[in-house]
Design a protein that fits this description.
By secondary structure, the chain is mainly α. 72% of the residues lie in helices and 0% in strands. It contains 3 helices and no strands. Keywords: Coiled coil.
Length: 126
């Protein structure tokens, strides 16, 4: 088994209690760069290492990163769903608009024909 990393003690109970009090809220903003750096610190013989404050910090960062990724995934899924609804609405709105335009053109053509027939009747009566 490997020795603990020098200079890193376990977190005090008070700080641990404060962190677990609001487990859903991240302690600091998520950073992909920080997550990448923490992942690179994981050694192949990690099972032989005794727990240390650095390890708990690394795990906290990884959990915070995973939570953030999960939230981003949920947000992107919701945005894609909203975009799909908007596309469907827009398409349906366009179809209705085209149908109304066609009906208006038919009504205008019918009105024009009626005016011509009305004019012909006036000429014939008069």
């Amino acid at each position: 088994m490997g020795a603990p990393i020098p200079g890193h003690e376990l977190p005090s109970p008070s700080s641990s209690e404060e962190e677990s009090a609001d487990d859903a809220a991240p302690a600091s903003p998520f950073s992909y760069a920080e997550l990448e750096a923490k992942l690179k610190q994981i050694t192949p013989d990690w099972k032989a290492i005794k727990p240390s404050a650095k390890m708990f910090d690394m795990i906290e960062t990884l959990v915070r990163g995973l939570r953030s990724m999960s939230q981003q995934h949920a947000l992107f899924t919701q945005l894609l769903q909203t975009a799909d609804y908007m596309r469907t609405f827009s398409s349906r709105h366009q179809e209705i608009e085209n149908q109304l335009r066609l009906r208006m053109e038919e009504a205008e053509a019918s009105l024009s024909t009626m005016r011509e027939e009305n004019e012909a009747l006036r000429v014939g009566v008069g």
